[in-house]
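Structure tokens please, single chain.
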Amino acid sequence: MQRFSLYIRYKCRLSILEPTQWPQSVIFSSFRRHRSGGGAASRWEGPRKSFAKHSPRDIHGENKTWVAKPAPSEKTDSKRLSIKPQNIAEVFQSGINQWSESRPLHQRLCTFGIPSEEIRPLLQAFVSAVQQGQLSTPEGFEKYGLIRFSQDMSSSQYLSETDVIYSTILFTWASDPAHESALAQATISSSTIATIQLLAQAADRSYPAEEFPMARKMHRKIIMHVGPTNSGKTHHALRALAASKTGVYAGPLRLLAYEIWERLNLGQIVPLGVEEELVSKAVEIHSTLDMVAPSAKKLGNPKYARACNMVTGEEQKIVEDNAGLLSCTVEMLSPEELYDVAVIDEIQMISDEQRGDAWTSAVLGVRAREVHLCGELTAVPLIRELLKETGDELIVREYQRLTPLAVEEQSLDGDFGRVRKGDCIVTFSRSNIFAIKRLVEEKTGLRCAVVYGKLPPEIRSEQAAFFNDPDSGYDVIIGSDAIGMGLNLKIRRIIFEAVSKWDGTTDRFLSVSQVKQIAGRAGRYGLHGNEEPGGFATTMCAPDLPFLRKTLDIPPNPLQYARMGPKKESFTMLANVLPPGSSTLTVHEAHAYIARLPPAYRYTMSSNTLMRKMCDFIDTRGRSLTVADRLLHLMAPIPWREDAILEVIAKFIRMYSEDIHVDLLVALAGTQFMPTMLRVETQMAARLPPPANPRTLEVLEGLHKIVVLYIWMSFRNAVAYSNHKDITELKGRVEVALEWTLRGMSNKVAFGTPERPRRSSPRSMPYQPNSNSQESRSLSA
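Here you go.
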């Protein structure tokens, strides 16, 4: 009975419901499943495994305490780890002593080139100035950016934000010529003072907008199209692009860039200014045929066709040398080209920890007379603040969802036999995707397509086309949160198998934005013919349903800040100022711990939980790489969690360092990648049925990543990565083999069943997939 009480208290603590709100049926049914290890035969019967074996681990392998993030609610979602502005000075001064005594700080200053014997005098002089209130004046608040103490610090995963703020204030203060005499009195040598000033100058990011002088010579018109998923916001922006003489589309995914490229060339986007009845007809045609069978996708109106090229990090499609339009991924957007219209999609990603700096550069630097920003309403206050630096005109157009979205009254209660045609089941583990596929096909006889982040964009697009085509035989789609971006799917109902996912550190509940983005894919406007418009959302298990219902009712919090990342110029300058032989991690961290940011707290540096591993790998395997080459490898699409692929990348680096020539086939020698590929091609040639072999699929996915990386490098260093044509052909072969292998992952798949819940999981569910697995951590990359 005591065990029962502890279990119920644990469930109630993590649930968005208070204990008194828990229905007795839910409490006792959950406890029975917890005690007995499962429910009815229709539910998953996973193998019993110890909790210790599957506890979360950090990058060094030690067991870590599982910390569950509270479920979002009006109360918890608004609770931020921040300081009220009126208390900043007091907190700043009271915390300075503890910060200045920390060992990591002293070690960091040594790596930055501050002599060890001068670190303590330097910090003592700084502490004295802070405690005397010299930095807490109204002028100091602006100069040192003390207002940053009031920003939300609850989402940082890699750098301690308070540590960063104190450190940047230290360098801003110590590099000020007005304080040279105070430092000299503290026995700080002139050479150390000069080093501090050079470091601060090299890392300075005080005026991000001024880093794009060509854009600052223009007065741009910025139009924000904001609203929920399925509100038509991007459609209106694309019509303006189709009507322009010169223009560019920049999106987050190669799949999206490809889709826009194809639609513009086929005339599927009606230009702005065309009569409304023609627009309605075109929208109907596109909505019905978008992402369906390849033959249907060729339809379009030649009258509206526009020559458009495509450039992504891994691929270029040149239709005409002088084509007026370009479709690209946001990282490939040039700040030098002049356009009439630019469309920047998914603008809310400007706050993304890893890629947000690309959106920041796009917003501040794109040279377009008219810039259309498409995304969530949460981005409006942040963009408004950023544009105060540029002087551009801002117009906000808000859209409402075109079709209703309703949460169903009941969950599926773990019964996969209740899945029906048009459903999409969302889970966050690759192995779970195929386990669910097997169960659904066994229980319902429906055939399932799959979509997840590790699949190449071409295969994802094909799987989506199968699901959308009513004659393909694929009635259900199962995927990760990859379905939440970049695919137009004929989903009638979204089913959340899970309401939490691994974030690289712990298992956390989905954010309000993530839930809305995924659930909003149901009931896509115009994709359901004569059926009643609208979509539905539910969960696989009853205890998760209140979470879904409540989260969808919560308005997401406005974005707090835009991300900034190292630039090639600052990376090189810092590497030259830092002590000779400084590690790549030291150069990267210098940007965060030294850079002076704008006084307002609307900017912060990008971060990555894998940065230490990335930098250590580059330094260990590429000691002879130049500074520019080190930065290039940090930016490259390398799957840092996959050790088998990293061994191939290590050969790339060695061949480049020794011969300035990288041979992909030589690098693949001795691995399982090419033998697996050739074996699959032999089986295909023999017209054998595709095997239900998950390992084969994993190996082919890895090979595709390696090939894509080679092509990515070939666009940036064509001399060393010179075999572009042959490798592009190999990429096509791998995709054919992947598609064929994927067909075999049906009801005979040997993926087993998901694992049982860990006690410390935040999920209030009767079963728990293995969300701590290596594959699920990078599932939506």
